[in-house]
Amino acid sequence: MALLQWRRFNFFDKEVLRNAENSELFDKLKDINLSSSSCGRGQIVLGDVDGFIYFVDHSLKLTKFKAYEIRVIHLYQLKQHSILVSIGEDEEGINPLIKVWNLDQHDKADNPTCTRIARAIPGSKPSKVRRPSV
After folding, report:
1. Which of 3, 32, 40, 76 has the fewest CB within 10 Å, making it most exposed?
2. What is the C-alpha separation between 122 and 32, in angstroms, rounded?
3. Rg of the chain, C-alpha, whole Å
4. d(CA 10, CA 6)
5. In which order are the strands placed within the sheet that holds 62-66?
6. CB-based contact 73:112 (threshold 8 Å)
7. CB atoms < 10 A from the CB of 113, how many?
8. Cα-flanking dihedrals φ and ψ of residue 123, to 5°?
9. Contact of 34 with 52, CB cutoff 8 Å
10. In a structure prediction context, what are the per-residue pLDDT tens digits for the chain, which is 134 residues long?
11. 3-class DSSP assignment, residue 4
12. Angle at 93 between CA 89 and CA 98, to 5 degrees
């Protein structure tokens, strides 16, 4: 009878995230409708359906900037360099854009500098990006 029972494995300890400064609950991401994520270089990178990209570091400091007019589709953070590659939409019905962000350089508004912009799929017929390969 013991062979037919499911075994339960606890891989993670359940713990509520708290802000290190004032020990309040970390709930800054609860109202965000996320569409993509990546990680690397000591931070988590999140994209949402409103075109914002969010950065969360080890101390749970949250920063964001507007990357696209409509939505962020995919994100990829390079592991060896401070480069973020994002794919998103600026106009409805147009092929998505690939934007390459240099996270070490910032503009006057303290946002990462966009170093390259290219169409994800060249051509006039709009199509969706399924999976990026960097």
Report:
1. 3
2. 31
3. 19
4. 13
5. 34-40, 43-48, 52-57, 62-66
6. no
7. 12
8. 130, 170
9. no
10. 556 777 777 777 778 878 777 888 888 888 999 999 999 888 999 999 999 999 999 888 899 999 999 999 999 999 888 999 999 999 888 889 999 999 999 999 999 999 999 988 777 777 777 777 76
11. helix
12. 30
Nearest to 48 by CA among 26, 27, 66, 21: 66
Task: Please spell the DSSP secondary structure of 23-45, one letter per residue.
Answer: --B--TTTT--EEEEEEETTEEE
DSSP 8-state secondary structure symbol assigned to residue 18: B
Q: Strand, coil or helix: what is 64?
A: strand
Q: Are 82 and 60 in contact (CB under 8 A)?
A: no
Residue corresponding to tokens 């303290």: 110
Type of residue found at 91:
E
Backbone angles phi, psi at 2, to 5 degrees: -70, -25
pTM of the prediction? 0.83
